[in-house]
Input
Amino acid sequence: MFPSTVVAVPHGPDYYALFYVLGFGVNLALLLWEGRQRGYPFRSWLLLLACVAVPFILGTKLLALSGPEWAALMSSGQLPASEARSVLGGALASGMVLPLLRRAFGYGRHVYDAFALPLCAALVVQCVGCVLTGCCFGVPTAGGWGFTYGPDTLPYLVQAYQGLIPAGATASLPTHPTQLYALVLCAGVGIVLLLTRHRVWPGGSRRWLQVGLLLAGRFVLEFWRDPASEPVGASAHTHGGLTLLQLQWALLLLAPATLGIWWWQVRRARQLAFEAELAPANFTGRNLLAVMGLLLLTAWLGPWALSLPEVLVVKALLLIVLVLELGAYLLSVASTPRPVRTALPLVLASTVFVLTSQISPDTAQSATAPEKYYTLSGSFSSGRFLREQNTEGGCGGSTPLELYRHRYATGTIDFSRTKTPGADPDGDVHMAERTLGVRLHVGGDQETPLGAGPYNRRTTLFALNPYVQLDRPWVGVGVGMMFGNLGYHRYISGDEVSVFDMQASVRVGQREKVYALADYNYLNYGSANPQQRFGIGTGLGGSKWQLLAGAASSKGYDVQEGASRWSGFAEAGFRPTPAWQINSFALFGNPNQQQVGLRLSRRLSAR
Output
């Protein structure tokens, strides 16, 4: 006889949540490796994994709901606050969605097999969390092989409620280590898949084998598992003199059927020619639409069905896809004569990310404590300007100055962190409002000579713009740096592109009343044509509206003699709620310099 194994779970750490995330990470890492081995396009494959993850997460929760919990969900539209989960529900939901997704993304039946081995590895990791947490525990055992758990764990509480242990007992009775049995089962199925990986089987057959073996093993495991630890089908039913749990009766039908399908596919394939797996094509436009649709779905599910870590995991996957798709899109449109197409993906991406940010600002702030919040903005600008420039000639010379027309479009994502001033007990503000942020600008610029000539240059714009802003009630100062292809050219030689510059701003006066503002290289709407601005603004007595107007000039864009370098500008901002703000901007009055821009901002609580 072996001595009992005692697993004492200390109060505090949530082992289940920890190993849930670890298992998810292991599954994702192995799936990425599997896709690489199979030659799948990375961007399309990563997007498919994100699309499968959402129904899997939902399925684990929905299948574990009881009848009353389902009634509450249908009546209120809110998922009950229950920690119960069932991997069977996740497998069922993702298995129903995957056939539709693989056709939409152009994958063959072999893609089912790619999910088999990674899931086994992820379940092994998850079983470790179940051992440490005490969930999925077994019935009491009189043998020496078992697990005992301390007070406040699920096995202890169940046994105390059933009267199996007295109140105040130091530990639970030994239970069958069904979590360890499940770990061995998942590892064994994984080993079977590894040993048969070189067999020439039809697409999808390994998935059927994996599911069939797991279901058959789960049927056997239920004989030692305590029904109180089973969130699905824990009631016992007797048919034909045989008493089994509801779940076991379902598994008794599903396991042989699944293994039978695997056996039929393998036998049938012996009379058919083997179909090799073909990697699908990657379509950037379709992928971007899928990303935005999944972001909107995640935003809708987040408040009632998904936890914040689950939302962040899904968004992290989608953000990677967006960055990769954006890079591919920029390369594909580098030769297009329409720069607006270059900025479009970033504009759409930033807009959707802003719209789907579900964390609202905390309105219950202390009157004396400083408030911290984040701001996520997406903006778009488009415009044109005229500029005299030249190009380098032979032997160190240069061509004569010639007038060029530039057309450009840029998209910008802006993320900042703001700390507002606190107040002393007398109510006096004792520190400045401080904002630290960074902007990412992406776009395109097309320059064409007004005279005769075949020259028509297109430039992809990409710039990073970290900045800091300090504000007091009567004065504000900002400074920033710009790195990258900024889209405007040094006058020394017209085909040179600046890679570094500074920006600055000064405000004098109260924003809620009347103030004067001066900007050097104004960049809130994009980097293609930074402005030098002087204006007068007002908040109309509050913070809901902001109006600003004045004169603006672009830097170094000299045009023919007698033409004005100055334009008028107007900017309007509206805050419909404390969390949202909309701004628009326009240059006017000068045919040699025109620009329009729009920005959407969302404030996120830092608490």
